[in-house]
Amino acid sequence: MKVKALSRSTADFTRETKSDIQILPRNVDPELHPLERAREYKRALNAAKVERMLAKPFIAGLSGHIDGIYSMAKNPWDLDRIVTGSGDGELRMWSLSSQETIWRAPEAHRGIVKGVCNIPGGDTDRFLSVGTDKMVKVWSRTEGAVADDGVTPETVASYSGKHAFSGIDHHRRRPLFATSSSLVEVWDVERSEPIANLTWGADTINTVRMNQTEVNVLASCGTDRSIILYDLRTNSPLAKLLMTLSTNAISWNPMEAFMFATANEDHNIYTFDMRRMDHAVNVLRDHVSAVMDVDYSPTGQELVSASYDRTLRLWDVGNGHSRDVYHAKRMQRVFCAKYTQDNKYILSGSDDGNLRLWRARASERVGIKSNRERATIEYADKLKDRFKYVPEVRKVLRHRNIPTAIKKASQTKQVMLQSRKRKEENRRKHEKDAKPRVPERKKAIIGTSSK
Amino acid sequence: MFAAAKLGADEATARRAHHTGSDGEGSASESERAPRTLRDQPAKSDRTTRPSAGKKRKGDKQAAEAPEDTKEPDEIQQRTALAAKKYQRGGPSSKTTKVRSKRAQASLDHAKRRREEAAEEAARSEMLLTQDAGFLEAEGLERTYKFTQAQLAENLDLASAGKIFDLKLADFGPYALRYSDNGRHLLLGGKRGHLASIDWRSGRLGCELHVRETVRDVTWLHNQSLFAAAQKKYVYIYDHTGAEVHCLQKHVEPTALGFLPFHFLLASTGMTGQVVFQDVTEGAVVGSHRPGLGPSHVLKVNPYNAVVHVGHGNGTVSLWAPKQGKPLARMLCHRGPVQAMAIDRSGTYMATSGLDGRVKVWDIRNFKPLHDYKTKQPAQALDISQRGLLAAGWGPHVSVWKDALSTRVDNPYMTQLLPGVSTSALQFVPYDDVLGVGHSQGLSSLVIPGSGEPNFDAYVANPYQTTKQRQESEVKSLLDKLAPDTIALDPTFIARLDPRSQAQKMRESAVAERERYAQDKEEGKYLDSSVRNKTKGRNSTAKRYLRKTQANVTDLKKLQALERVEREKQQREQASDLPAEHKGALSMFYKDQR
């Protein structure tokens, strides 16, 4: 007889001392894990609920500005500092870690501060501001003489232009900056007059943005509903795109230099490939009022937009609808929004004069996580991803408490769009020579031309 | 520790199993062991991959003669591919219908690739399993079924030989018994009222009590801290100290109990024939069904899909889910009452025994009989072990068949005579080579080599569980508690894509609605539309109809209306019996009413 029966020694499966790790053998045989799909579904549902339970996107509101915040600049070389300009001409520099103002210039400009931007390079804390008072001013927190609080510090330099400015952006490397007014002007830091004037038929330019990767390209958008691309090497416009409504802001994708996103008056955000501008790459539609600002995340995969409907929305660039919407009871029209350079936070400046700090992922928490914690989170994410199309899970994941006004407005808008579509289809049915359907990505584009 | 307790996220589990397994040992010893374990593998899982196992063995010998390093990788790959089939999740992925969107197609392809990788990795992780299954082989003219437990004890190691014992409890038998999921705790229920829980390996008594009434069946709930007993009139729940916690009065004269560990449902059937499901976490009765076939004494839970199988007096076995009012299936299994039943853990095979003296094996995927075994007396108890051994207790005998489910074998694997007793219950101990036999004289514990799963998963059932671990796993399992409506014959139906289009769904639901309406109408639920009154008031529709129709015409409609008038009158009378403060819209403002 040859015989052997299972006989385990207790010592093999129990730890000797309390400091040892527990001995937990695994066996992945499916027969030992019955009903695993049902259990994973349940876990996915629980994970979705926990996610919504932990979704507390708002971190802090930084108050100080008396008027609304209409311009904002983040510093690519410094995570902590942020500069804002308000409607009464005040400039403030904030420290995000301590959540307070660390420098301010009460009467930096007469009138609205329309644009601020940092001077590149980690070795300087200089930044530029433009206002409707036709001035470009260079500021520094450390270089100027220390002034009492409430007294406007000295500027480092200033340039005067011929028109009220509406936007400013600095070249990535060279000492150049571009301003927008009734035309786009390129300035050399050393000179008091612009070195180039760039125009292509627009009456007023809303903003100008320099490409930070493909550094010789800049884009502007004007009140004549145009988006114009310029080349710095030839000092001439490259291409022009005319849309049905005007564009309020432009953001270049930091990872894909040829892509940019535009915030449009028609409630939508359009992303474009500058090589083929006859159609938008994607149309992001969820806002119920004009989009005032848009900013790419440092990864280039996500977008944040600020809108006149008093909300911020977060988008995946590939999807047509927002993944999240942020609002606060006292937040008014939002005029500027930025993703921070660590991809973790969002800043918004609104009409009510508060700078707000939000989480980029509402249910995520900072801090070092243990391996176990991380594994749990990853597992939960995977489950949510796997079961996201199951109605119960989707319902939980997509649920948001939205202000009634916005909910109502979006319902009304939905009805309007549908009826418009229905009408078009009806007309098409009874037309003799119906024109081919225009894709949604081309609908808002009137035409393109290049030089 | 439970952060990692993810029982089956495809790739994650496989990978983690890999890590956990390799925790304790050095990599050198692993690589040495790998080929040996792999070669052993087909024998280990011979139940599933049986046809190929013999061939592999031959190939193995050749490989041993030929230069090792040329043949080995090929063979390993083949083995892995074979084993990977076992770990394939979500059904066969051979269907390659193309979808229109390129992006969707890419993501489908990606998911498929990941699934295959996960299965392969899981198969590869088999080499990390540390334990080998037990075996019993006869040499020469010996036959395995001739070996007695006494002979086995002489040849076994001391620890295993210690598992052969008898508990002499002659006073209160016959006994029902149940081992806990990790095989560590034993629950005994004597017909004449004796209840006891024992940590049977150490012999430590958990609790012991006498309930002074009939005990027909016992079961553990989710762990060894609670157990249920089917007593004379109701089901009672006791805690680990033996204190009565609950009396479940919805289970009337229960005879058999079953527990669904993932749903936290206690199922019972009894002398009334009713199948009752009760949620033990919140106490709600989630299902109560009347098969209408008289008293039944057999109830088993299918571990694969949590469907409850109930054996009836007319020889049928019906399959029940708590939320379906009708049985999911009904099988005629025997001529004469069903005596005992057992279901294997893969949910493929069911064995039943009837008073006709047969033990039949069924394929419950398609409800077809496979083959049957004869016992000289009707088998009173059946069980299927984790590795697919079939045990039957008939009179004083216990027979165990090996590989008896997929094929018909001529001779049993082991037999044992327990003189002077009659067996009443059988259960293989999970993760051990032991068969517990409850009988009129107490309990006998027999060693059946090769019956138990050698490698346990500590996150599923851990025989060496500490108190802390038990508490944590209790919390985890409560969080993952499944809703009763997740029970169906195919447990993978959850989150599956509904292939119907939106229009089709609407159409079908409209058709169903129409059918329902037609049926209701036929049953006389609605009055004819010509009778219906649009406004509300003292005037009833039926009265109006009676007024409007000719007095000398009597048809069905008129009879209905008369009946309705009568009913309304009764209702009015009932309402008028109430005192003023109890009726009318203002009743809530009366003082004594609040």
Automatic annotation (TrEMBL), chain A:
InterPro entries named among the record's database cross-references: Sof1 (IPR007287), WD40/YVTN_repeat-like_dom_sf (IPR015943), WD40_PAC1 (IPR020472), WD40_repeat_CS (IPR019775), WD40_repeat_dom_sf (IPR036322), WD40_rpt (IPR001680), WD_repeat_DCAF13/WDSOF1 (IPR051733)
Main location (coarse class): nucleus
GO cellular component annotations of the record: small-subunit processome
CDD domains named in the record: WD40
Biological process, per Gene Ontology: maturation of SSU-rRNA from tricistronic rRNA transcript (SSU-rRNA, 5.8S rRNA, LSU-rRNA)
Each WD repeat, start to end: 62-104, 284-325, 327-368
Location within or outside the cell: Nucleus, Nucleolus
Domain Sof1-like protein: 360-445
Residue ranges, annotated region (Disordered): 407-451
Protein family (similarity comment): Belongs to the WD repeat DCAF13/WDSOF1 family.
Name of protein: DDB1- and CUL4-associated factor 13
Gene: sof1
From TrEMBL, chain B:
BING4 C-terminal domain sequence ranges: 412-491
Gene Ontology annotations for the cellular component aspect, listed alphabetically: 90S preribosome; small-subunit processome
BP-aspect Gene Ontology terms: maturation of SSU-rRNA from tricistronic rRNA transcript (SSU-rRNA, 5.8S rRNA, LSU-rRNA)
WD repeats: 331-372
The entry's keywords: Nucleus, Repeat, rRNA processing, WD repeat
Region ranges (Disordered): 1-124, 515-543, 565-594
KW Nucleus (keyword) present: yes
Subcellular location: Nucleus, Nucleolus
Keyword Chaperone set for record: no
InterPro entries with a match to the protein in the record: BING4_C_dom (IPR012952), WD40/YVTN_repeat-like_dom_sf (IPR015943), WD40_repeat_CS (IPR019775), WD40_repeat_dom_sf (IPR036322), WD40_rpt (IPR001680), WDR46/Utp7 (IPR040315)
Biased composition (Basic and acidic residues): 30-49, 60-77, 114-124, 515-526, 565-584
Main subcellular location of this protein, as a coarse class: nucleus
Function of the molecule: Involved in nucleolar processing of pre-18S ribosomal RNA.
The name this protein goes by in its record: U three protein 7
Organism whose genome encodes this protein: Coemansia erecta
Lineage of producing organism: Eukaryota, Fungi, Fungi incertae sedis, Zoopagomycota, Kickxellomycotina
Encoding gene per record: utp7
